[in-house]
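Structure in, sequence out. Go:
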């Protein structure tokens, strides 16, 4: 299985790069912020986050 992780400072173009990488390679794209944060601006427990990441 091919995997890639995109890491960088805020505003450095991570999302733009990740979306282009997704289109070029077909690799699935997951936004960790979207997994970690709830709609009410709180976050899920570390255990739940770890479970979701393992499932991905």
């Amino acid at each position: 299985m091919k995997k890639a992780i995109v890491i960088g400072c805020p505003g450095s173009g991570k999302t733009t790069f990740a979306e282009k990488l997704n289109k070029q390679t077909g690799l699935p794209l997951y936004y960790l912020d979207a997994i970690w944060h709830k709609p009410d601006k709180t976050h899920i427990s570390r255990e739940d986050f770890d479970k979701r990441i393992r499932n991905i």
